[in-house]
Design a protein that fits this description.
Strand content: under 5%
Oligomer: single chain
Number of strands: 2
Strand order of the largest sheet: 1-2
Order of helices and strands: EHHHHHEH
Number of helices: 6
Helix content: 55-70%
């Protein structure tokens, strides 16, 4: 199964988010932030300001800030992120969709 263009871009932004938080791997919060950043429909479906509140909650929940990591570094997915992507693929398959989209990933999380 393939990922939609917006999901691939969301993955790129997830890598960016992980690097900006200094994480050596892409975790589910980075996937969520990447989807919110890329998918223009998703934030519109959330209650007013929810995307920014999600970002602030993630920022405060992380331990002390670490040094930013370059986007050119290959970052592995955490086991939770792998599971979320797998569950997203299951959701796409369940609905007989040809590609995994951000909605499938949200359902998988």
């Amino acid at each position: 199964m393939t990922a939609s263009p917006s999901t691939r871009a969301g993955d790129f932004f997830a890598r960016y988010e992980a690097g900006s938080f200094g994480s050596p791997f892409i975790d589910t919060e980075h996937l969520l932030l990447g989807l919110i950043r890329e998918d223009k429909v998703l934030p519109a479906r959330l209650p007013g300001g929810a995307g920014e509140r999600i970002r602030k909650r993630i920022e405060t929940s992380l331990s002390e800030p670490r040094r930013q990591i370059s986007n050119s570094v290959d970052m592995p997915l955490s086991s939770d992120s792998k599971r979320a992507l797998s569950l997203g693929a299951e959701q796409a398959d369940k609905f007989h969709h040809a590609a995994i989209d951000s909605g499938h990933l949200i359902l998988g999380c």
